[in-house]
User: Fold this.
Amino acid sequence: MNHHIRKKWGLPGLLLVLSLSGCDNGTHGGDHTDIIAQTYDVTVNSTGEGEVSPTTNSVSTGDLSTFSVVPYDGYRIHSVSVTDGECPLKNVTINSIDDGLVNYTVGPVSSDCTVNVTFEQSTSPTQPARLRNVVSMTVSPNDGSGGIIQLSESGEPVTSTNFYLAPGESQTFWVEANENYHLKDISVDDPEHCSIAVALISDEAYSVKSILGKCEVTVDFEKVRAPLDPLAPQPLGPLEYYNITFEEVVGDGKVSINPLPIRVPKGKSFDFSVTPVEQSRIGEVSGYGCSVSTTTDIDPYSTSYYTSEPVESDCTITVEAEKYYTVTISHRSEGTINNIQVLDKDGNPIVEPLGSITRESIDAIHKIKMHSDQYVTFEAQSDSGYIRSYASTLECGLDSSNGVYKTNQITRDCNYYIDFTENCNGKPFTSTEDIQTLLDNPDDGKGTTIVLNDATLRKAVTNTSGNSGTEYTGLLSEGRNITFDTSCVTDMSVIFYNAAAFNEDISQWDVSSVTTMAAMFYNANSFNKDVSNWNTSRVTDMSYMFYNANSFNKDVSNWNTSKVTDMSYMFNYAIDFNKDISNWKTFSVTNMSAMFMGARSFNVDIGGWNVSNVRNMSSMFQSAATFKADIGDWKTSRVTNMSYMFSHATHFNADISDWETSSVTNMSNMFEGTTFFEADISNWNTSNVTDMSNMFSHATFNKDISKWDVSNVTDMNSMFSYAIDFNADISKWDVSSVTDMSSMFSYATDFNRSISRWCVSEIEIQPDDFNTNSAFASQSSFQPQWGKCPLRLLE
Assistant:
């Protein structure tokens, strides 16, 4: 090959124009020189399968020229090359708005210049840089005086070019030095992005392989030293050069060598680096005809640097590289991984495996690099209360025996996860899959014990009946004879939620670890089995436990409730329940709201309960129609909410005169519909109450409450509505904070007291139905003066 790039010589870069002025009055004016910048044309040609714009651009010396390339549908850019002139290609800029557009820049421009754009067919999207990696290739010197490159053996010679390669794809290129030059080396900017190798098809052919990301290649030509004058002294003699050849990499690994030295002057050393790529490691690097050594500590997994001794002959460099695989062993924190060993195929320990075994995340992850003919053994030790299990990728096998694990011979990256799962008192938990098998096969598993945790218990109690509203069939059915080991279950909340037909024997369940039974039998309308011997000593939450379990009425008197904090809605509408629970320990309970709401049979003496920590008693006995137990000694100093507490508890009439109510803020509907309640509550401290709406609505109450401090109450809506017996003197109440008195005395047919001195400045006009059909409705002098405060006027 003898392709030499055509050098185009034009005018000098700067044109000097000398302009002499005329003579005035016989004297010379000043001489001056105008400097005019030379302009050059940049011409862009293409093969026609796309558009380039502009095709010609005139720029000044040293400036840059930019043009855009858009391939037609079905094509993509193959290469962009400078074929004539001095205007090297710059970096590529991708238009982020139009995916088909790529901008290119050449310069600095120092001569007329020709750029050639080629396209190739493609079924993939038109944007090459998004799918493939750009390769930029330039010569040095960049004016082309040293030599040229070609992308095919008979292709057009260029000094710089851009083309695209997919990861792993290679492009052959040819190099030719001009007269008095030779190829010095070929280098890449980042050997992890691409690699250079000698192509075997020709002495002047090389290949570039894309690995990762953008690749910049420099082909460096060096001027040959001319022979000295034979008549002059020649102490050095003519400069001799030796060829440096790199053998194919020995082994199954891949490396990138940079730069790729080609020829070296006699007596000179050369430097190069070796970078392992594609998950390889470097073995030995050696020279035949010259000696090479490392200049830094060797790390077989990253770039290593080498230098030669002074070259005295042609030299061949051999690089050994091998593939490696990474074995990752990770595990839960409830155990440890120990005694990791790498063994060869004969079972002999590898004293120095490929790199040290690294540990990350506080010993939870172990990574080992190894060959395909090796395998790993290790030990797994679980903490107390846990047992070993493992999971691995399908392609990577693992055998185990008594806590010692052994992998198959490694042929790929492998990840092993050692799962230390909880066990129940030394017994492994029954898996969800095994429980499903029992559910699917009604005739299997008779006499079996299944060991359950919080999650699998919910699976195990599944009703398999096609009519779950009226029939229960499942693992708890009497004929199945399956024992439930619940000794490690901590959460039994909602397990029989809406199980309307469930009424199986669960008396032998071990509930000693359970902490919550919230809504356990919620709407379990049929359930009424013996649970008297349950150990509930750890339970903290029994809220909604028997909500609407309207058949339940079994003995639970011996339950240990000392840790329960929430009993809200516990027997809500459990309409049959009336068992003795007077000895329950309730000192930890803070919430008893709606506990016996609608429990119309309940009338047990619970006056001895310690309720000193209860904050909420709202609706506690609402609609508990038969409840009339003496609870007068309860310590209620911490209760803040008593709304609806005895609403429609029609038989309640206990003496609760000594209750401490100073913390209560809400007494709305408290005695609504209590047709028997006549207890003396005149001394109650109501100073913090803000809501008394409907408090005595539809009640028969008629006791003295004249001394109540109602100064903070804001809502008295319907307070005495339909309180047909009430006629107590409340004329001195301070109602100055009340904003709502609508229907307050509506149908209070006995109330006939003057409240004209009330301070009602917050209510401008008489509220709706304030005194409708009350005894004092027609007595205007008894009415408040709306919008005014008579007491303050007197002051």
About this structure: Residues 459 and 469 are 18 Å apart (CA to CA). DSSP finds four helices and 40 strands in the chain. Residues 1-33, 125-130, 228-237 have pLDDT under 50 and may be disordered.
